[in-house]
Design brief:
2 copies of one chain form a homodimer. By secondary structure, the first copy, chain A, is α/β, with parallel strands linked by helices. Chain A is built from 14 helices and 7 strands.
Chain lengths: ~350, ~350
């Protein structure tokens, strides 16, 4: 994607090494290229993650999600401003749902980056919501791991909170912020109830609009009734301590009102012992490992030696001549794994 | 979910047999229970699908998606009315994104079903957007296979077209209808561009509103520029014939205007030789088989004999003491699959 062919065709391990070293040395252009490799899920990404992953684990991963129109981008911009004011570095991964296939408009990045041109401690990157199922969660997880290793204090994962994958991405963060705007439509109300389950902090943005206080009160009332997602997106685990009720804050992103309080709430949540952070780390690790295992299994089945058998099994299922379980069993048997 | 414990604890194979037989005999209550089993992805669902899957392949699967507020539910209701008027049976699977965790509000079903109480040829079912990544696509695919085997002429898969998973569900149908409303906000505009890539038919609903004709003209102009997703959600395959440009229709779901024309367009698309249908069938079969393979792999790794090793590998990744590729390789080696 926009890279010279000569570089892209270099030995993946060498290229991964170069990009990783440059990234660790603070080269933002190398970091951007590395994230493109992560999006493309190839050998360069694998080699780079093998090197960089063990260097991470220090960044605070914050998921920011909410329905369209709640003002996520404006709030993220305000939060960047506040973080810079207190001297912290920040990277943003914005999951762009606009195109499931071609990758969609990444123009927003350039516009947003312009405000921080020359500031090495702000990095903004969109990732398209493309690829196979589950790809979004593992791609953004891998991107967060790279940004973590690159030394950013805080990594913001910004998603539109309307689809399952997008919510999962935000919910896999250490701290999940759900943004709501006052007075939303009916369908958005239903989405809201689902989002509240993953929230550690709820922000009513556009706090200067009429109805903001009432919306905040309504949300506090809803939060009492909503079951809490202990493992952040995973099913609630009965053995684990019940995470505490999320705080509800008011912000006006356009003026910056309430943004220092939001940062304080983020820091407070990070410091709490509700187990959320450990569980979020584990959930992210599991998502990464399982996604790699799925890739490996796919590679095994698409191996030239087995591709014809895989294709034939799928074609039989497409014709309803074979049920999908029988097809799966056949393919597993061909890998020597037998029936379970 | 709402089933007597006694029945749920019966032998899965026997229960699957009973439910399948009753479903094929036209028992809608058995069908509803079978779909609950499919949602829960257990042994009953597996046994039932092994029996029912080979009986399907006749229904026309139609995906209906669009941004919140475009009037999907009203249009689906109008389409049901039109289908019944011409004597066809119809099942609706509505993917409900309102709750990624607890399943959310399925109340809509009851309200919608009331209009067809006593009509065996209309069946409406919500499925919650829960479960692991990719689960949504395979669960709705399995549900569609059951409804197909149950003999419905047309199966409508209704999703909110804002998240990756939800769009994939609709895009996996034989024919994908994207609904738009006149005059949407900016963020919704961006979503729109992505949705157009998967559309076989584009419907501008609320056709009586000012701006509907202009929206239709704008969409026709956009469609010329948008790349077409030949495999309906999969990457465009250079070897395949380029599917033709989608039709753009106007409907007013609340009055029924344009709905007979929509049904005619659905029938026309089904009859075309653009290869879409065969490819959609293949894509659905592949999604089902791969999802089962992923379940099998998960079961292998979570097997009591290997669970401790799996947990330990994930814990090391969570602590950044091991990179996720090394962890995946370790787990594959424990299955005897070795490094690729």
């Amino acid at each position: 994607m926009g890279e010279p062919a000569g570089q892209a065709s270099a030995d993946p391990a060498a290229r991964a090494g170069d990009l990783s070293d440059a990234t660790l040395a603070g080269d933002r252009r190398a970091l951007a290229r590395l994230l493109t490799a992560v999006e493309n899920r190839g050998a360069v990404a694998e080699e780079a993650l093998r090197r960089l992953y063990p260097l991470g684990g220090r960044a605070h991963l914050v998921g920011i999600t909410g329905p369209p129109g709640a003002g996520k981008s404006t709030l993220v911009a305000a939060l960047i401003g506040e973080l810079r004011r207190v001297g912290r570095s920040v990277a943003v991964v914005a999951v762009d749902p606009s195109s499931p296939i071609t990758g969609g408009a990444l123009l927003g990045d350039r516009v947003r980056m312009q405000a921080y041109a020359g500031d090495r401690d702000v990095f903004i990157r969109s990732m398209a919501a493309r690829g196979h199922a589950g790809g979004l969660a593992s791609t953004s997880g891998a991107a967060a791991a790279v940004l973590d290793a690159a030394g950013f204090d805080i990594v913001l994962l910004e998603t539109v909170g309307t689809g399952q994958s997008e919510v999962e991405v935000a919910a896999a963060a250490d701290t999940t912020v759900v943004i709501e705007a006052p007075e939303m439509g009916d369908e958005v109300q239903a989405i809201k109830a689902g989002l509240l389950e993953v929230a550690d902090i709820v922000v009513v943005n556009k706090g200067d609009k009429p109805g903001a206080q009432r919306t905040a009160a309504q949300l506090r009332a809803m939060l009492v009734a909503v079951p809490r997602a202990g493992a952040r997106g995973a099913a609630v685990d009965a053995e684990s301590p019940r995470p505490k009720q999320p705080e509800v804050l008011l912000t006006t992103a356009s003026t910056g009102d309430g943004v220092p309080e939001l940062l304080a709430a983020l820091d407070r949540h990070r410091g709490t012992a509700d187990g959320g952070r450990e569980r979020a780390r584990r959930a992210r690790a599991e998502a990464l490992v399982r996604s790699i295992l799925a890739d490996r299994l796919r590679a095994l089945l698409d191996d030239p030696a087995r591709e014809a058998a895989t294709e034939q099994a799928i074609a039989l299922v497409a014709d309803h001549a074979l049920d999908p379980y029988a097809a799966a069993d056949r393919l597993l048997a061909s890998l020597g794994l037998g029936r379970l």
